[in-house]
TrEMBL record:
Swiss-Prot/TrEMBL keywords: ATP-binding, Nucleotide-binding
Residues covered by the ABC transporter domain: 6-235
Protein's name in the database: ABC-type MDR transport system ATPase component
An example Gene Ontology molecular-function term: ATP hydrolysis activity
Length: 306
C-alpha cells in the first residue's frame, strides 16, 4: 500500500499579484481523514481545486495517487471523488435518476449500476426515497445524495470542500459518520470544515491562514503543543467588556470569549490569583480545546502579517 496518496511541495497559486496559496507542503496518508482548516478566504478551496486537477498551480509540485497535478490532471479527475460547496444535483430529477446520471458520467458498466446505486442509497440513508425529486429533499439529504453521486465510482480518495455547511447538526453528525465509515473501509478523505467537532475526528489536521500552512499535526498534538502558557476559564460578570482590560495585563498573552465565559492564556499558573483579584472573577485551569488552538494560531498569524 502506498504510504502517502497526496503530497505537495511548495504548492503555490496566484491570482494576478494576489497569492491565494503560498508554498504549501502537505502529505496525506492512505486511509486517513485529513482535516483542512482555516479562516474564510485562506486558500482551502483553491488548494483542493489544484489537487483535483481543476486548477493549475502557479508554481510548486503536487501528486495525487501517484499522478502529477500539473502534468496529469485528467488522470486525477478520473480517479478521485470531489464534492464542493456548490455540488450539482439535478433538482428536476429524482434521487434514483441523479445517481443513474452520475453512474453514466463515470461510465460504470451497466451490469454493475443497479448494485452500485443500491449501495449508494444505503450508504446515504436514502433507501425508500428513490422516487423523490432532488428539489424536495432537505439540505442534509441533498448533501448525502451529492456524496453518493460523488463516490458512485468508488474512488480511493475523496475531496470534500465544506460538505456540512448549512445543514442541521443532526445531518452534520450523520454525514460525518458516513465519512468515518468510508475511511474505515480504506478511502482517504481530505475535508475542509469550520466545525471543531469534525476536526476532532480527523487523524491529521492542517491549518492554513492567508494561504500559508501554520500548523499540521494530530488533534491531540495540536492541543498539547501549540498553546504555550497556562489556559484558564474565567467566570466574570460583564465578560465581553472586560476583554480589553484583561488583554492589557502584562502576564496575559491572549483572551477570548467562549459562550458566557472567557478563556485567558496566562504566562504561568502563578498568575491565576492575580487574574481573579484584577477581574473579581473565578477561574480554573483547563486543557485547550481545538477551538482555543485555532483562535490562538489565527491570532499569531494576524500579528505576523500586520
Ligand atoms: N478565480 C479567482 N480569482 C481571483 N481570486 C480568487 C479566485 N479564486 C479564489 N480567489 C481568492 O483566493 C483567496 C482564497 O480563496 P479560497 O476560496 O481558496 O478560500 P477558502 O479558504 O476556501 O475560503 P472559504 O472558507 O470562504 O471557502 C480568496 O481571497 C479568494 O477571493
Amino acid at each position: 500500500m502506498m504510504e502517502y496518496v497526496v503530497t505537495t511541495r511548495e504548492l503555490t497559486r496566484k491570482f494576478g499579484s494576489f497569492t491565494a496559496v503560498n508554498n504549501l507542503s502537505i502529505s496525506i496518508r492512505s486511509g486517513e481523514i485529513f482535516g483542512f482548516l482555516g479562516p474564510n478566504g485562506s486558500g482551502k478551496s483553491t488548494t483542493i481545486r489544484m489537487l483535483c486537477g481543476i486548477l493549475e498551480p502557479t508554481s510548486g509540485e503536487g501528486s495525487v495517487l501517484g499522478y502529477d497535478i500539473s502534468r496529469e490532471p485528467e488522470k486525477i479527475k478520473q480517479k478521485i471523488g470531489y464534492m464542493s460547496q456548490k455540488f450539482s444535483l439535478y433538482d428536476d430529477l429524482t434521487v434514483q435518476e441523479n445517481l443513474e446520471f452520475y453512474a453514466g458520467l463515470y461510465s460504470i458498466p451497466y451490469s454493475q449500476r443497479k448494485k452500485r446505486i443500491e449501495e449508494m442509497l444505503r450508504m446515504a440513508y436514502l433507501t425508500g426515497r428513490e422516487n423523490m425529486l432532488a428539489a424536495h429533499l432537505s439540505g442534509g439529504w441533498k448533501q448525502r445524495l451529492a456524496l453518493g453521486c460523488a463516490i458512485i465510482s468508488r474512488p480511493s480518495i475523496l475531496f470534500l470542500d465544506e460538505p456540512t455547511s448549512g445543514i442541521s447538526p443532526t445531518s452534520r453528525r450523520m454525514f460525518f459518520k458516513i465519512i468515518q465509515e468510508l475511511a474505515a473501509g480504506g478511502t482517504t478523505i481530505m475535508v475542509t470544515t469550520h466545525f471543531m467537532d469534525e476536526a476532532e475526528r480527523c487523524r491529521n489536521i492542517a491549518f492554513i491562514s492567508n494561504g500559508t500552512l501554520i500548523a499540521n499535526d494530530t488533534p491531540d498534538s495540536l492541543k498539547n503543543n501549540v498553546i504555550k502558557g497556562c489556559l484558564v476559564e474565567l467566570e466574570v460578570t460583564g465578560a465581553m467588556e472586560k476583554i480589553s482590560h484583561i488583554e492589557k495585563l502584562p502576564w496575559v498573552k491572549e483572551c477570548s470569549i467562549h459562550g458566557p465565559l472567557l478563556h485567558v492564556l496566562l504566562e504561568s499558573e502563578a498568575h491565576i490569583p492575580e487574574l481573579e483579584r484584577h477581574t473579581g472573577g473565578k477561574s480554573k485551569k483547563i486543557t485547550p480545546s481545538l477551538e482555543d488552538v485555532f483562535v490562538s494560531l489565527a491570532r499569531q498569524n494576524r500579528r505576523q502579517v500586520s
